[in-house]
Amino acid sequence: MANPLLSVVIPVFNEEGLIPTLVQRTTEAVRSITDNYEIICVDDGSRDQTLPLLLAARVSDPRLKVLVLSRNFGHQAAYTAGLFAAKGQYVAMMDGDLQDPPELLSRMYELLKNDQYDIAYGHRTDRAEGWARQTLIKMFHSVFRNFSRLKETDNVGNFSMMNQRALQAFLSLNEKNRYLPGLRSFIGYRQVPISYARQARHDGTVPKMSYKRLIALAFDAVFSFSDLPIKVCLYTGLFGMVICLAGGVWVLVSKALGLTPFGWSSLELSIYFVGCIQLLFLGILGEYVFRIYRENQNRPLYFVQTYFDA
After folding, report:
1. Which residues form the Glycosyltransferase 2-like domain (predicted)?
2. pLDDT tens across 62-116, in order?
3. Are residues 252 and 190 both part of a single domain?
4. DSSP assignment of the chain, as one string?
């Protein structure tokens, strides 16, 4: 059987309330492009009715395929599993919460089909989320943009489409701590943004990506694509040296002029300050050591339990 023209990879985790709408909207969007397609939903260890609903939807359309992971391995690992399974000439990535509208897939395909571009990705001009979440995300993108030396990473996510040439380059990157938008930018090729306003979750609930997971993903991005943590250590150390030198000069001047020397409180605060800085540096170095350890373990990113593709 010939490979499909278009593959759409969608990771899902406990999305039973969204599955019918997700399947319907995605199928309609893909059928507006071609009838030769596959939609790969990666069940990332869901504990609700997500899997039964996906399998029920497969009865009416076998081009909906379901890749079931053995447990919850995380968003980036689930995407990776789906990308390795995809066989399409063009492969799209889309979150399963419908915050990224599948109707934009046709625009991405139009930009790629004439071989003018290799990758089309969504650029978020606005997002329907709370102010606290938006503030943290903007802060991260600002830091990452200025220190990663990568283009096409500001206000972007996983929502994208790429041809086979770009996909094979993308899949050749084997690191375990994965930030997919950064990896997509890293491989280069001809990339074009598509601007859109990111919508709220279709079911009205809060995003499944918790603050803890967002911060962990931000750490993966910063430590993998930036030397910012090391620069923080360097510049803080240099600043501390300047403060110490200035303090030493002040002690000498105060003794020469017979001024009152600093008391024990100043000395105690100085010791605490230096101790905190040392702990901060040890924590940063520990992050690098742990990430090196994970890479050297070379454990698989995921395990597949079942793949319903026949």
Report:
1. 7-168
2. 889 999 998 888 888 888 899 999 998 899 998 888 888 888 898 899 899 888 8
3. no
4. -PPPSEEEEEEESS-TTTHHHHHHHHHHHHHTT-SSEEEEEEE-S--SSHHHHHHHHHHH-TTEEEEEESS---HHHHHHHHHHH---SEEEE--TTSSS-GGGHHHHHHHHTTSS-SEEEEEEEEE-S-HHHHHHHHHHHHHHHHHS--SS-TTEEEEEEEEHHHHHHHHT---SS--HHHHHHHT-SSEEEEEEEEPPPTTSPPPSS-HHHHHHHHHHHHHHH--HHHHHHHHHHHHHHHHHHHHHHHHHHHHHHTPPPP-HHHHHHHHHHHHHHHHHHHHHHHHHHHHHHHHHHT--S--EEEEE--
Residue 1 lies in a domain: no
pLDDT of residue 42: 92
Predicted confidence at residue 240, as pLDDT, reads 66
Q: Are residues 65 and 185 in the same domain?
A: yes
Instruction: Specify whether 133 is located in the same domain as 98.
Output: yes
Let me know how long the chain is: 310
Domain CATH number, residue 117? 3.90.550.10
Residues 194 and 146 in one domain: yes
- How many Å apart are CA 299 and CA 55, to the nearest integer? 30
* Amino acid type, 49: Q
% of the chain with per-residue pLDDT over 70: 64
13 vs 130, more confident: 13
pLDDT of residue 9: 92
Residues 210 and 234 in one domain: no
Question: Domain range holding 246?
Answer: 228-297
Same domain, 261 and 216: no
Q: How buried is residue 120: exposed, middle or buried, by Cβ count under 10 Å (0-12/13-18/19+)? A: buried
